[in-house]
């Protein structure tokens, strides 16, 4: 990974998901992970995607979670379980190892379990929900480091994922510089608007002066 790419992960980590969502909209990118939420208060993360695709278990069944030692530190684990809410693909053993190995967080198109430990350790897990039933003998890993779907958003290996209290967004690698530039402009404009409003300026005038609506309007 290049130094510039490392810088872009750090840039994304300084921006909230709402601002990044507006920037994605301006560039016409559907990067908002629908209904994916933090399983603990204060969970935040930023990193590059390490993806896994799940499918129904074969006979005999394959593995659900033996990949963890191959994941580079600083990555975000992205688990596409097809939105299943009847079987988990993440629990306390994976949480403990991921936390110890310095993995940035886990995002699941589906559910997790053992949320008490991730909250205790402060390890960020984002999913559609949590429930206790194991995915063992129900689902299995089909592919690693392939394009996956998380809450209707496409995630490819190496894309940036950012998560906070509002949810998760994915920034495609090929568009990350442009999206981050736009998000930083939006953030600066919003801070200037808030400062102007605190000083007594009308909101519509403050937004006009700082070109707020143009910053959020989709490019032609």
UniProtKB/TrEMBL annotation:
Signal peptide range: none
Positions bound to substrate: 91-94, 113
Keywords annotated in UniProt: Magnesium, Metal-binding
PANTHER family xref list: 4-HYDROXY-4-METHYL-2-OXOGLUTARATE ALDOLASE 3-RELATED
Annotated source species: Cupriavidus lacunae
Protein name: Putative 4-hydroxy-4-methyl-2-oxoglutarate aldolase
Cofactor: Mg(2+); a divalent metal cation
Gene3D superfamilies: Ribonuclease E inhibitor RraA/RraA-like
The organism's taxonomic lineage, starting at the top: Bacteria, Pseudomonadati, Pseudomonadota, Betaproteobacteria, Burkholderiales
GO molecular-function terms, A-Z: metal ion binding
Bilayer-crossing regions: none
Protein residues bound to Mg(2+): 114
A Pfam family annotated for this UniProt entry: RraA-like
């Amino acid at each position: 990974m290049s130094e510039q790419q490392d810088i872009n992960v750090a840039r994304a980590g300084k921006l909230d998901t709402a601002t990044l969502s507006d920037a994605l909209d301006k560039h016409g990118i559907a990067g908002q992970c629908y209904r994916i939420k933090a399983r603990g208060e204060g969970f935040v993360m930023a990193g590059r995607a390490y993806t896994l695709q799940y499918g129904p278990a074969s006979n005999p069944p394959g593995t659900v979670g033996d990949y963890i030692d191959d994941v580079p530190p600083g990555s975000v684990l992205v688990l596409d379980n097809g939105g299943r809410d009847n079987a988990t693909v993440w629990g306390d053993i994976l949480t403990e190892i991921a936390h110890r190995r310095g993995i940035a967080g886990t995002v699941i198109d589906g559910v997790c379990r053992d949320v008490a430990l991730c909250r205790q350790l402060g390890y960020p897990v984002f999913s559609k929900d949590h429930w206790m039933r194991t995915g063992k003998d129900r689902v299995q890993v089909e592919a690693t480091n392939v394009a996956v779907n998380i809450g209707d958003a496409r995630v490819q290996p190496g894309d940036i994922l950012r998560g906070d209290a509002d949810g998760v967004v994915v920034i495609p690698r090929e568009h990350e510089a442009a999206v981050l530039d736009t998000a930083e402009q939006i953030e600066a404009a919003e801070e200037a608007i808030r400062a102007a409003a605190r000083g007594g300026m009308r909101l519509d005038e403050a937004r006009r002066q700082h070109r707020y609506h143009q910053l959020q309007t989709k490019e032609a």
